[in-house]
Amino acid sequence: MITIEFEEIKKLVTIRDLFEPVKQSFIDYSSGKVIASPVNLLHFENNADAHIKIAAIQGYSYFSMKVATMFPQNETKNLPANSGVIFMFNANTGEFTAILKDQGYLTDLRTAAASAIITDQVATKNANSVSIIGTGNQAFYQVKALKELRNIEKLTIYGRNIDKAEILKEKIEKSISNISINIAKTVEEAVKNSEIIITTTSSTLPLIKANWLTSGQHITAVRADDTFKKELDTQCFEDAKSIFVDSIELNKKYGEFKDAFAQNPSIINKTFEFGQLLSESIETNEKVGLTIVKLVGLGVQDLATATVVMDRYFSKNKL
After folding, report:
1. What's the confidence (pLDDT) of residue 278?
2. Which of 4, 29, 178, 239 is most buried, most CB within 10 Å of its CB?
3. Do residues 119 and 293 touch, judged by C-beta distance below 8 A?
4. Three-class DSSP category at 22
C-alpha cells in the first residue's frame, strides 16, 4: 500500500489532464458499466458537511472510496475549509492499494473539469461572457477550466463578501490572460450581465430567479449537492428548454432539481444525462432557449481522476 501526498498529487495532474477521463466517466456512468456509485452525506453544525462517494466501474483497474469535507468555520481557525482523502483498491483482488491525501484538491479539479466539458458542449457556441457566483476555490477552478475550452472575454464575479470577490479577481488576473473582469454588486446584476452563469455556493436558499433570465442564456450549477442546498429557484427548471445532469437518479434526491421535479415531474421529459448526450449525439449548443446543467458530483469522476494520479505515480516511480 502506498500513500501519495498532497504536494505530489499537485505535480502529477492538472485540469487539462482530466478532460478526457472525466468525459469518459460520464459515458460509463450512463452506459450501464457502473457496478456501484453510492453517495452518503453527513451534516454537522455551522453548515459543515462530509460527502462519502464510492465508485466501481467494469473494466477499471481500481475501485475507490472518497471522503470530502467542507467545514466553513475553519477559516476562523486558519485552517482550509475543504479537506479529504481517496482510498484506492485493486479491482481484481480487492487489495487496499493506495491513499491519496488530496485534501479535496482532486474533487475541485474534477468538478471544474466536468462543469467545463458540459458547459462548453451545451452553451451557445459564441457565448463568451461568464458570471461566476461564489468566491471560493471552486469559483477559481471553474473559470480556469472553462477558459481552457472556450474563449472567455468577459467575466463577472459576485460574492457576498466584497473582499473575497476582490481576492478572487486578483487571483484570476494573475493566472489567466486576456480576460476582462468586473465585480457585481448583486446576484441579479451578475446574472443579467452574462450569457453563461456558473454557481459555486453552498446556499440553502435559491439565489437565481427565473425572471432574471432570458432565452439563450446558460446556467451551470455545481454546489447544490445535498438535500438542503439550493442555488436556482424551481421556476428556472420550468422555463428551461433543456436540462442536463450528471445523474438523473441522484438529482431526484439532492439539490434544487429534487424540488423542481417534485413540483412538476414532467420536467424529466426535457432532462438528459450528460453521458447519454455524449453517446447518443443529442443536439446541443442551441441558439434559443434557456439551458441548465445541474451537477451533484459522481463517484465515478473521483475514480477516473484518482486513476490518472495512480497511473502517473507508478509511471514516474517505475513501480
Report:
1. 85
2. 29
3. yes
4. helix
Cell 494573475 sits on residue: 174
Burial 27-64 (b: 16+ CB within 10 A, else e): bbbbbebbeebebeeeeeeeebbbbbbbbbbeebebbb
Phi first, then psi: what are they for 288, rounded to 5°? -130, 160
Closest by CA position to 86, among listed 172, 5, 20, 205: 5
Q: Which of 91-95, 199-203, 236-240, 286-290 has the lowest mean pLDDT?
A: 286-290
HSE of 255 in the Cβ direction (CA atoms, 13 Å)?
27
Of 283, 220, 308, 247, the C-alpha closest to 28 is: 247
Q: Does pLDDT of 282 surpass 70?
A: no
Please give the Cα distance from 87 to 97 (Å, whole number).
8
CA separation for the pair 43, 253 (Å, rounded): 16
Q: Specify the pairing of strand 218-221 against strand 291-294.
A: parallel
Rounded to the nearest integer, the mean pLDDT of the chain is 92
State if pTM tops 0.85.
yes
Work out the average pLDDT over 157-179. Answer: 95
Q: How far is the C-alpha of 237 from the C-alpha of 118, rounded, in Å? A: 17
